[in-house]
Amino acid sequence: MRKICAILVTGIALLLVGCATADTSGVNDPYEGTNRKIFNFNHKLDTAVMKPVAKAYVWITPDPLQDGIHNFLGNLDEPITFANNLLQADIKRGADTVARFTVNSTIGIGGLINVASKIGIPADKEDFGLTLAHWGVGEGPYLVLPFVGPDPPRDAGGQVVDIFFDPLTYIDLREKFWWSAGRGALSVIDLRARNLDTLDSIERQSVDFYASVRSLYRQNRNNDIRHGEPDINNLPDL
Question: Dihedral through CA 55, CA 59, CA 62, CA 68, nearest 10?
């Protein structure tokens, strides 16, 4: 089900790319009118459902358990990161990813405890969208998708490819559909819970919440592409 949904999302995104017209605004958002409507829908859904669920999760779940769930979910994604490390020809980060997965899966009790960070093995999170960017593929027109949020074609397509990098895709688990659905739902709740205060602050301070989210999405993705290194194209003149 997860695979089918991702492929459908990507198909829609690529169709929109083919229909795009030139955007002279400088923000590469040729579907801004439609994007804003979808953004408003997502925001109402978040206000009515996801935000209250995330607040309840934070209130009910002790901090150590929240950290354990976050660590466990992150550990499940390490094989995807490793595959993209290799595709980016980044052997050093690939070795670190293998070391993190090994240490956290064993000493860290299946990834519940982030032992690797405690002993100095740096964290890295990669996806195929970042790999495409690494090799010079552009983002494409900015898109906001229902229930998903910002997801330009490069990143949407990357999510489909990452499904095939996930070993759990090929493991025949009992009740696999419910396991996958539960993992996805818990990942969304974990992400939303960790950004409750941040998103509230951004919304309060924004004259245009949509434009702020668009800008922050791109800043975060570009920072991930550079692995946190300074943007040499935007350094001040000396």
Answer: -10
